[in-house]
Amino acid sequence: MTLDLTPDELLSTTRAVRKRLDFTRPVPRTLIEECVDLAVQAPTGRNRQRWHFLVVTEPERRRAVADLFLRALPLSTGQPLTDQDHWRMNYHPESTAGVFDGLRHLIDNIHRVPAFVIPAVEGRTDHAPVSVQAGAWGSILPAVWSFMLAARARGLGTTWTTAQGPLEAELAQVLGVPYDEVMLAAFIPLAYTIGTDFKPARRIPRERVLHWDRW
Ligand SMILES: Cc1cc2nc3c(=O)[nH]c(=O)nc-3n(C[C@H](O)[C@H](O)[C@H](O)COP(=O)(O)O)c2cc1C
Is 174 helix (H, G, I), strand (E, B) or coil? Predict the structure, then answer.
């Protein structure tokens, strides 16, 4: 059973869900399998299909993974913010404020999340040139977003996080992943959503991002 959403509604209402995750309902394995079946319809460079999806539901391992999430978050750095980033983040300040508010809720409840999805891709690209990075990440990220869309269509909520980043090697060890051969691409809490009505996000105007013939 999927929700009655048009393709445009699905694409425009798949939000990062934090406050409306239902921590009381387990997510059936069959639903996650369906999401993976759809995810692997995504493209990959040279049809290499190096993707993997680690799903963590077993209570003890889930606790270990949730602990790691909490320890990793303060260590996340990412690129420094530019003036343009500040402008974009403040264009709809309530949206950005909502992210931090929601994140607080997620942090406070991370141990109650019924499933974590950690997508992975074979082949490490540490220190590789951008052209190599583009091929590797471009061959896993479309599948991950498809997974998230498929989840939304089934009444499930997800939030893309990069919490795997700072403690990737340790997370790999907890999950038995061969770190030297495989990159963990994201860290995604998964649960049923509380209600299924989600709205399109408010973003910066199209004129600021659409470039025609030249930058
Ligand atoms: C690369 C990436 C990293 C993100 N990291 C986090 C994170 O660590 N914690 C979190 O709560 N949300 C994270 N998000 C979710 C974003 O905050 C969210 O997508 C954004 O604010 C827009 O909200 P929306 O998806 O509901 O439209 C991340 C999203 C992306 C694409």
Answer: helix
Q: Give the residues of the chain that fall short of pLDDT 50.
A: none
User: Any idea which architecture 7-75+89-194 has in CATH?
Assistant: 3-Layer(aba) Sandwich (3.40)
pLDDT at 1: 87
Gap between the Cα atoms of 31 and 35, Å rounded: 6
Q: How far is the CA of 161 from the centre of ligand 1 (A)?
A: 6
Phi, psi of 12 (to 5 degrees): -100, -5
- Contact predicate 119/143, CB 8 Å: yes
- List beta partners, residue 156: 192
Kindly report the protein residue whose alpha carbon is nearest to atom 6 of ligand 1: 161
Question: Could you tell me the two tokens for 145?
Answer: 């977003």
Is this model's pTM higher than 0.85 or not? yes
Which residue CA neighbors atom 13 of ligand 1 most closely? 161
110 C-alpha to center of ligand 1: Å?
Answer: 15
Per residue in 96-152, pLDDT (tens digit) is 999 999 999 999 999 999 999 999 999 999 999 999 999 999 999 999 999 999 999
Residue nearest to atom 9 of ligand 1 (CA): 161
- What is the rounded distance in angstroms from the CA atom of residue 215 to the CA atom of residue 208? 10
Ligand 1 neighbours by CB, cut-off 6 Å = 15-16, 18, 99, 103, 106, 159-163, 201
Residue spans per domain, the chain: 7-75+89-194
